[in-house]
Amino acid sequence: MNIDLIDKVEKELIKLACASKTVTMETLGKYIGIPPTCHKNRTELNELLDNLSDKCIAEKRPDLTALVVKNNGNSRGIPGRGYWAKVIASMRSELNQEQIDVLSEQYLHDPDYSLLRVATTAIHGQIFRYYNRIHFIQVMN
Q1: 3-class DSSP assignment, residue 82
Q2: What is the DSSP pairing of strand 23-24 with strand 68-69?
């Protein structure tokens, strides 16, 4: 995977976090020169986001990839299934299989996205606060 592209995506998402904003996959793809107009590009973007997510988790920072959201229908403003699948998978050590199955069913098959919308609001708030605090500290130094 291209480390320079991961860094570019990370920097852009940090700027957005500091401004309390989100971005669609289409806009992010165009910004980094990989518009998600074909399967190959969408796959590459998903791999970039997956690698960035792993980096955030390894560094014990809020996962910036939650800021990449859908732009259509009831799911507008909500991260995609790949993000949620990763969140649920990260809970495997804390939950039993029955609890994971219930979460997967409720979150990933929520027809009106009400549960995901509540979770997204909380996650975005956490990301915005974290990166705004970091930005404030940097400005003050």
Answers
A1: helix
A2: parallel
Distance CA 84, CA 98 (A): 17
Q: In Å, how far are 38, 41, 82, 85, 118 from 50, measured between CA atoms? A: 18, 14, 8, 11, 23
Residue type, 125: G
DSSP structural state of residue 65: G
What is the three-class DSSP state of 15?
A: helix
State the distance between the two ends of the chain, measured CA to CA, in whole angstroms: 34
Rounded to whole angstroms, how far apart are CA atoms 104 and 108? Answer: 5
SS3 8: helix
pLDDT in tens, 29-71: 999 999 888 889 899 999 999 999 999 989 999 999 999 999 9
pTM of the model: 0.86
